[in-house]
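Quick one: co-fold with heme C.
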Amino acid sequence: MLKSFLIAGCFAAAGLCPAAAFCAGLGTALDRARFPAEVLIVRGDLQRLNSPAALSPAEVTGLEGRIQSALTGLAWLAQEYGALTKSKIDGQLLQDLAQSWAQRDFLSAQALADQLSNGYTLNSAIFSADRASAKDVERARELDLQLCQGCHTDRVGTEKILPAYRLKEMAAGMPSDEFLARLLSGVRGTSDTALANPLSLGDIRGLLRLYQEDAVD
Ligand code: HEC
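Sure, here it is.
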């Protein structure tokens, strides 16, 4: 399980974080974002699964696997979110979502994920591209060039289980909060950062600015 996860995942730590001890990554900002972000990703993945015209059969398999594993962890993330934010979690809604998915009723599942994402919104203000400093943007540009672009070259329809799409195109093709969610959860570190997202708050703001520059929201 872990092995396939390691192979399939998006690992961007190399060179990102030379002094691991001083690189706390996103810390509690990420902890609070985890559940709403995962809900947005599940919603987006379901939406893509429900309009599969442009997807390769391999990617349909990959998306199904990703939704399955996201749903398996969702109740736990919801609990963590409830504890951190002292908010009440709608357990029934989570159960209904799991049930629709189990029955392969993907349209209902998408509607329920949509309902969940409206109830537990991702606090995107702190990550806002408008708050990126000139330095953040410069570093994001460098990261993108040296690291991200090397892998993210796929075009829609690529015959891969989990394609690594061009990030600017990815940003242009989805709501901005969903793209933020994918930046927050999609990028993992190596074992040095306990698989946590190695990006800093400034990196996220800078990358959002970079990728969403010409995108219409
Ligand atoms: C070693 C190759 C590699 C590098 C380097 C890399 N990625 Fe990825 N990335 C992938 C692959 C493969 C996927 C698709 C699998 C997945 O979703 O986990 C992915 C997924 C993602 C996703 C989530 C997409 C989704 O569908 O949810 C985002 C966002 C992302 N990468 C951003 C970045 C950024 C930003 C960087 C640079 C800081 C980066 N990646 C560096 C390979 C890479």
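If it helps, Residues 1-8, 13-24 have pLDDT under 50 and may be disordered.
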